Automatic annotation (TrEMBL):
UniProt domain ABC transporter: residue ranges: 2-227
Entries under InterPro entries matching the protein: AAA+_ATPase, ABC_transporter-like_ATP-bd, ABC_transporter-like_CS, ABC_transpr_LolD-like, Cell_div_FtsE, P-loop_NTPase
Protein's UniProt name: Cell division ATP-binding protein FtsE
An individual GO BP term: cell division
Principal subcellular localization: membrane
Lineage of the organism: Bacteria, Bacillati, Bacillota, Bacilli, Bacillales
Amino acid sequence: MIQMKNIYKKYPNGIVALNGLNVEIDQGEFVYIVGPSGAGKSTFIKMMYREERPSSGQMLVDGKDIGKLKNRKVPFLRRDIGVVFQDFKLLPRLNVYENVAFALEVIEEKPQIIKERVMEVLDMVGLKHKAKMFPRELSGGEQQRVSIARSIVNTPKIMIADEPTGNLDPDTSWDIMNLFEQINAAGTTIIMATHNREIVNKLRHRVIAIEGGLIVRDAAGGDYGYED
Ligand SMILES: Nc1ncnc2c1ncn2[C@@H]1O[C@H](COP(=O)(O)OP(=O)(O)OP(=O)(O)O)[C@@H](O)[C@H]1O
């Protein structure tokens, strides 16, 4: 469902972040992206939801070259892709319910469906009882749960996470990983950049290691493989 063919990315400042990268990811896979700082992990991930465009090469999602997608079509692509960040990126003036509902309101879903679906995903992440609270009133782990709820509310086929446990303590990180496991078990493809060696070594999935903008290792059930 995701194919990168000879992806090369040079930023305007001249830095080459991806240097001819080839990879295929199938529906339902769980893939960790690992590698040293500055290796190109975030850039790799940004290609998949069209936050960045390749300088050359093809970035195919379901056979469509999203690198060539017109800007006005990007919101349609994003309906199929949920994104979770290290710093949650919740809207501070909206409460938990509203932060999650927002994703459905922008696609003009029916109010009754929005209500049901939002409460369903808040229940799934264990935050139904905090629906009226604001992000600043929540712990980091709770904020990440809200951002996960937001990312799955429109049942995307792909979920992309850039260091989702980067700001969380170890116990909370495991709770968040349990949620990702559940989401993946329901059929959603998960692609997660991480520096969390314990998680990668314990919850085994495909590991793609990037160094210097190239894939240097790609192993099913692989380990983290770095000492950082
Ligand atoms: N918007 C940008 N403009 C210019 N250069 C960038 C930009 N974003 C990233 N880079 C550069 O591209 C290279 C790869 O960065 P990237 O963020 O993809 O690495 P990373 O593997 O995600 O690193 P980290 O683990 O530290 O988050 C780095 O040299 C970085 O400085």
